[in-house]
Design a protein that fits this description.
The chain contains 22 helices and 7 strands. With about 450 residues, the protein is an alpha/beta fold.
């Protein structure tokens, strides 16, 4: 019987059996890596997505057999280290994802490999620190401390020292820390009660999961989100408490830490859902974590499944309201040309181009969509060993922004937006789409 070339059906994600003994068995892992790498080598259509695939294909092409069996098993880690779990290969390129009989899920195989590596104690101290966003953020966002940290991060001599000591590239753009956090700014929203007007799948009242980045690094995005939602008569509250969603630790392969984050966040969010609140988060990776990754990691946890069904991308939420006639469409300020970069972790939520659809409601506004990964990933673009690769990956995005000759440019992922801004190097500032929408509303 002939093999099918590829799927004619939508890809299906299967739960991750990360607590089984086989999951951490290195011999079993290498067998699966060899199987999948052999199929990838025969296909090669993902070569343009990230550095994992060129790394793999170079290893094959430089081997004695010109096949995967000629690649040393220890060199497989070179492929794993280049993957930052953007998920685009699975969602947009691979023709052999489940239900195809080859059942290739490259990102989750890379996650398994990262988990094996972490379980062996081989995660760098630098990476453990970078992914401890709550611990680092609590200290770095303290009054006075934040000014010192921001100053050090922008001082060339100290950046060179930092590169030599902990291998964070001296030229990488590092996020600012704000002592006036989102939770401080919006403290009056915490624990409030309200009645919403349901429409479509939305309950009409929203609890904001601020996220570690949105809380301590760029709280203005949360301010703008709340202003836009309240302008549209959507009551807003904030979770009583929260910690990092767990995505950084997942990308490290530290799944035990992911479970700890889940155990801290889910009960709080579940209580909000049971009280009739929808959940919205301003960072796509955090929405994806609750919407897709936690349900696959904890498929038997009913609370995780309930929260998953109640969390929305902000622009996805606004488009649901618009379809029900509940979104205000009077925009006194036109935006002109907008170069809009779609974040990878928003694209793989499979909600469509909701940000573009909302911004396109603004009169005299033209939105150019850029669907290429920026290569940032939160940590990939700042590490000494991967900074140059990140700058290479972002080049097509930069070229698209330049071609658009836009009045504004930005991304739903603020870190991707700043990476693009850094690579542009022309003095223009990235603007988050929610900030642009607030500007268009004139509020």
């Amino acid at each position: 019987m002939a093999k099918k070339e590829g799927n004619l059906e939508a890809p299906t994600r299967h739960p991750i059996d990360w607590k089984s003994d086989d999951f951490y068995d290195e011999s079993s892992l290498f067998n699966e890596l060899e199987r999948v790498f052999d199929h990838c080598h025969g296909c090669r259509r993902c070569v343009s997505l990230c550095e994992s695939f060129p790394t793999l294909f170079d290893l094959v092409d430089e081997s004695e057999t010109f096949e995967v069996d000629g690649v040393a098993k220890q060199d497989y880690w070179k492929v794993v280290d280049q993957c930052y779990l953007c998920d685009l290969c699975y969602m947009t390129k691979c023709p052999y994802t489940p239900p195809h009989e080859w059942a290739i899920d490259f990102p989750h195989l890379m996650l398994r490999a990262k988990a094996v590596k972490h379980s062996k104690g081989e995660s760098k101290l630098r990476d453990q620190i970078l992914t401890s966003t709550d611990s680092v953020g609590k200290v770095a966002s303290l009054p006075v401390v934040s000014s010192v940290v921001n100053g050090v991060n922008n001082f060339k001599p100290t950046r060179k020292l930092i590169e030599n000591v902990i291998e964070i590239h001296e030229d990488a753009e590092l996020p600012r820390f704000e002592s006036n956090t989102l939770r401080k700014r919006q403290s009056d929203k915490i624990g409030r009660t309200a009645i919403g007007e349901a429409a479509g799948p939305t309950q009409g009242k929203v609890a904001v999961f601020g996220t570690c980045y949105g809380n301590r690094n760029e709280p203005i995005i949360g301010d703008d989100l709340i202003a836009v939602f309240e302008h549209n008569d959507i009551p807003v509250t904030m979770a009583q408490k929260e910690q990092c969603c767990g995505m950084p630790k997942m990308e490290l392969g530290d799944l035990e830490a992911v479970e700890q984050a889940k155990n801290a966040n889910i009960p709080v969010l579940l209580k909000l859902v049971e009280d009739g609140w929808d959940i919205v988060a301003p960072i796509p990776s955090c929405v994806l974590m609750f919407k897709q990754e936690l349900p696959l990691l904890f498929p038997e946890d009913e609370a995780v499944q309930k929260v998953s069904k109640a969390i929305f991308d902000p622009f996805e939420y606004l488009m649901h309201r618009h379809k029900a006639g509940k979104l205000k469409t009077k925009f006194p300020v036109a935006l002109g040309k907008v170069a809009y970069h779609t974040a990878c972790h928003q694209r793989v939520q499979n909600v469509g181009r909701k940000t573009q659809q909302v911004l396109s409601l603004i009169p005299d506004t033209e939105v150019s969509v850029i669907e290429r990964c920026s290569g940032h990933d939160g940590t990939y673009a700042i590490k000494k060993e991967t900074f140059d690769s990140a700058m290479k990956i972002v080049r097509p995005v930069v070229s698209a922004v330049k071609r658009a000759e836009a009045d504004h440019h930005g991304s739903d992922c603020p870190m991707a937006g700043h990476h693009i801004e850094h690579a542009l190097g022309d003095g223009t500032n990235t603007e988050h789409p929610m900030s642009l929408l607030r500007k268009a509303y004139g509020i």
